[in-house]
Amino acid sequence: MKKFIAATALLALTTSSFAATTGTLLLQGIVAQKVLVAVTAATVASALDLSATQADLKVGSVNVQSNSKTGYKLTISSANLGKLKRTDGAEVFGYTMKYAGSAVGLSTAVGTTITNSAGSVVNVNNDINISYTGVAAETMVEGTYQDVVTLSIAAN
Q1: Which domains does the chain carry?
Q2: Where does the pLDDT of residue 17 fall: very low under 50, low under 70, confident under 90, or very high at 90 and above?
Q3: In which element (H, E) is residue 149 found?
Q4: What is the DSSP string of 61-127?
Q5: What predicted TM-score, i.e. pTM, was given to this entire model?
């Protein structure tokens, strides 16, 4: 038994003499990717006076947020290809759009894509403006004319 205790004590001394003098600790956190677009319509957007000509009428604002390391793409498209369409007919009323002061092409199904390739944190607010030439009510078929504009965002 004395030999066993002595051997155990010697093993303990030997093991402790090989202990490291430095150590490391890994600290790590994960930041999830966030790309977000929030659209806020102006009151006038749902009550347009189609008989009065408008130039750069603010119809909404857009908040874009991204922390993507590859940037983002914002796509703007129109259900009626840049025209207000009578909801119960085929008549249309044309308009043009600007996002952040730049013209947006809505005449194709794919719309316009705005690319931000900066890999940085973005949190910006931009206006949506439309322009159109007013038409006298007596020259248009009565009804509600509308279009749905969709803004979608994705990381590059």
Answers
A1: 35-155 (2.60.40)
A2: low
A3: strand 149-155
A4: EEEEEE--TT-EEEEEEETTSSEEEETTSS-EEE-EEEETTEEE--SSTT-EEEEE---S-EEEEEE
A5: 0.82
